[in-house]
Amino acid sequence: MSKRKPGPHDHGTRGHDDKSDRPYDDKRQHPKGGEPHGHRPHEPPYYDPDYEQPPDHRHAPPDNPRYPDRRIYGDYASKTPPRYVPHPFEHTCFKPRKEDYKPPVTCDDDHEDDVCVRKDSRRLTADEQNRFLNAFTQINVMNALGPLVDIHSNSIHQMHSNPRFLPWHRIYLVRMEELLMAVDPTVCIPYWKSSEEQAFPSWLLGFTPTVNLMGGPHTVTRNIGAFATLPNAAAVTAAMANGTFNTFAPALEGIHNSGHVWVGGSMRSVPTAPCDPVFWMHHCEIDRIWAAWQTAHPGQNPSLSGAAATMDPWPETEIDTRDITALGYTYA
Hints:
The chain is mainly alpha-helical. It has eight helices and four strands; from the N terminus they run αβααααββαααβ. It has a two-stranded parallel ribbon. Strands 2-3 form a two-stranded antiparallel sheet.
């Protein structure tokens, strides 16, 4: 019988020696002498069937289906792979050398460096727009965004239709901003002043990310203007005219709700709304209006006590939300 040629399912020219399955015991020498190398002959890069011999796969089920080849994946191919320890978010993305870093091109530089300045989205430079979208994309790729979105889907936090709405979302925005700044410390969430703009931010129209949520991947959709009108400046003025928190807050939450419905699609659903970057910009505008109202009405705060006063799942209390500068940001 003729010598069998390597078949398409053979692993190079190893033969049937058990030692061939132990790559770290390979005693073959480098062609020019010296220490053993890690490579072995590859299968020919062409189709070379052998019909004279039955196929010989010589494959048993792998110990770890995700890492089937121990030679390639090392100990990950075992039944007890190395324990997974994720990188801290601030070390997940590469950073350039100091001499290669490109600082942002900004419209102004009137604020302290240690305070995040949230700007009107219409005033962002092209560079600032790109930095925001890049940071948003990176935290999504890092699988950091999906878990933060999922928090918003959990009604146990009671963050809508009650006095927790404004303070809870204020802390939610801060956590999102911290994630973005872990990628690019120059990025602050811009606000979408929809009551004046009366349009969707044009530079976001083509940006519809897919976010991995508990229920599976969700791709952002929109149905702009189909089911509601966008509250105008007069509606904001009317809300600002309220003299107590318990009359102001529901008026502002109503404006907030209409904005969600006006964008439509993902924004219309509580579990998926934060997948859309306009969610964060919309809530920044709501937060900006509240901050302005707080300045005009000192001492008017949500009536929260006990467990309701803690902005779970975070440790901040309602009292911690009263000063935005202490939280590390301001509005321009």
